[in-house]
Amino acid sequence: MNALPPSTASGRSEPAFRHELYPYRNNAQFLSGTLEYIHEALEGGEAVVVAVPSDKASLLRGELADEPAVTFIDTRTLGPNPGRLVNAWTTWMEEQGAGDRPVRGIGETAWREARNAAHLSELRYHEWLLNRAFARSSAWSMLCPYDDADEDPSALQSLSRCHPLIRQDGHHIRSEAYLTTGEYPFDALSPACDPFQELHYTHGDLTAIRSKVSQCASDAGVPQDQLQKLAVAVTEIATNSIRHGGGHGILRTWTQDSTFLCEFRDTGYIPDVMAGRTRPAPDQIGGRGLWLVHQLCDLVEIRSTPDQGTIIRLHTDLPPPN
Fold first, then answer.
1. Where exactly does CATH 3.30.565.10 map onto the chain?
2. Fewer C-beta neighbours within 10 Å, C or N terminus of the chain?
């Protein structure tokens, strides 16, 4: 790793969007690093958007005395799906950056609150996607605090792959582990749990698909309001699968870790890694299905390659037992 001052490029040019990982191990380190970052922004006339867990937000509020250029956001209002976060950050940055005002974001993911391994994997993928989403946003930058109290080198290494820069002692250094080229190395999908239900589908089978999912989800204990949302999501995915995935596919449903899952497999390919993560334009024709599915499901996993086709898993959280 090569040390660089915060605003200096040396050797390789830095990305337009400055995305920094900030490992810390206690509240004092959290405050020193984030406050330094905020004061740099304020001195430069920049706005700041802060989205951190509530206990960390309270620490910062106590030090900032209601600074008008700093806006606090509660990400819990978005629900659990990380697939909604790229669009949310785009909205927050645009709102605070009116008139081309530079904006800094501070976004700390509540890693220890991840519901399961799949959720944790998608949280990491979101961190990597931010670089793609904001690649040309030279007026935006983001600091991602990470509580490294457990001193888990594998977890820190995984996050270093998603951040071009790592902040240390008021400077940032390049992350040599950052994935600049190639495909994102997804965690392998866990196999479907037995017993699972399976349905091979093709043209004309939408009604059968909806009926199958509705019955299996109801048997699993999915609440009525979620059943209605899931029916819409399943219709969108199945329609796209038949239309763009070779005309046929395989549906599987099962329950795992207090979650009801629907999995669609077909031979199609989704080349756009941002598909479904940004709000479609009002005049856009098509391309709304995956966006809608992300709004309706608690988690969406997508694996798509030209040679192996596409797998989409829809997660619906089950209520706790009485």
1. 197-317
2. C
